[in-house]
Structure formats: structure tokens, C-alpha cells
Design a protein that fits this description.
This protein has a 4-stranded antiparallel sheet with strand order 4-5-9-6. The relative contact order is 0.10. The protein has 11 helices and 9 strands. The chain is elongated. The chain is α+β, with helices and mostly antiparallel strands. The chain is 45% helix and 21% strand. It has 2 domains: 206 residues, Homing endonucleases (Endonuclease I-creI), CATH 3.10.28.10; 52 residues.
Amino acid sequence: MYRSPWRPPTAIDGSDLDWPLGRLRKLAYAVGVLLKGDGSVYVTKQTRVLKHGQVTVRVPRIELKNKSKAFLDAFNDCLSQVLRRNKTRISPPNREGHRMVRYTSKDFVSWWRGLGSAELYRIARTFPIEYLRGRFDSDSNVGKYKICLVGVEKHRQLMEFERSLCTMLGMRVGRIHSYGSIGETTFIGSKSITSKQPKIRFNVNTRDFARNVVWLHVEWKNQVLRSPPQRPWTPWKSDIRNRALELNSAGLSCQRVVERLWLEFNLRVPYETVYYWLQQSERSRNLHLGE
């Protein structure tokens, strides 16, 4: 049966009739999984036996390997709508318990490999919730009070962008910082991975993430996300917040503001709280200026 060629969207505002908003949101989720997450886009060589002998062909693949069935099901549904194909069969688990979803699409892989970061960022910025859901399904650790997105140093620019998306949505977000060391060996099942460059991460408040992104597909992550503890809210006095804004207006960084509040009030105001105050103030100022 003839299969019409796949084509990317000409616009991401729903004006391309072949790409309604629902399909575009699926594309944004796919971008989140494939960009630096658990998914991969690649071309491999494969030997096929024909009547006149063997021939080596290049096979373009879109793939996700994971233990979470719900994650695989979501990605399978997502790619079937993005590519307008029937859902593919999810492979049985291997010895480590990993299953796999795999699609073949020359047109999609060619488009993906020719994309620049500006276009990928534009898709993510237009559909931030779907994009972040794909990224956090792939590369996050979910805790009761904070969610940690992890990466490596060469992905710092991307993670700064993702951190800005979280801030844009009104989440309390920590700074990006390095952890671990070069040469450190960790194990995923029986596979050992040795760090060749520093690892980095940033934290997001769990309740803020749950309020904005709402759910994740990975079962254990979603269970923690949907039932964060009801930690008592700290009622910071208005004069402390106002002083933080004054210090920031005077040119002090967020960290220096935290230190000054400790000196002046003898109170340990969390960095994330001060950062949230400053971001809220900046958004209010921009709205007042009509930006």
C-alpha cells in the first residue's frame, strides 16, 4: 500500500490544517523525549538478502527503550499521531526488563537531523507543558519536595532554557549546579557507565510542578508527583520579602540577598523562595510596562 510522505508543520499555531494543535502537542512531547532524553533518532546499516545477493541499506529509526510500560505506551501513541501511522508493537522485555518502541521514517529522521536549536526551542516554548513532560519522563528523579532534572555539562545551555520554561510557568526553581565527578562509575542494571564530563542538575518544587505539568507517564514518578506531602507553608513577613526586593534592586544577586537576609533578620530564607520572589516581581514589572 502506498504511504504518503511525512512532512513537518509549516506553522506551529494550528494554522497548518494538516497539523492541528493536538498533533502539535504530541510533536512537542516527542521532542522532549528525543532531544536529550531516553529516546533516540539515528540511522543504522542493515544487511538484507535479496534474490541477486546481499545488499547493505541505511535504516532511519526513532526509538525509545525503557522499563516503564506507561511511558512506552504514551510514546507509541504520540509517534503514531505525529507520523500518522498505526501504533507499532512494543517489544518483550530483555534481560534487564527494558522494552522498546521503534519506528522507521526517513522523512522524519531527515527533518530531525537538519533541525537547529532555534526551531526546537520554538516548539518547546509554544508547548512548554508537553515538552517538559517528555523531558521529565526521561531524565528526572521525583522526590516528595523537589524534582531533579539531570544532564551533563555539554547540555548546560539546553538545561538553562528548560529552567527558564519552568520559571515562565511560575514554578520555584533552583540553580543549575554540578555533582559527581569525572571518572565516576554508575550502574544501570548490569551496564556500567563511566562519567566523561561533569554531571549537572536543577531542582523544581514538586507541588509547583504538579500544579503546572499535572502528571508524568512513568508510573513511580507519577505516583510521587500526584501525592506530595502537605508540608506546612512558611508565612514569611512582608517586610522580609520587601527587603529582598530592595537588595536585589540595589544590584545584589539572589545568593547575596539570601546572605544579607540572614545577617539582617537571622532567618534562613531558602534560595528558591527568594528566587521566586524576585521572579514574581520581575513579571509584575513587565506587565506594568506592557511587555
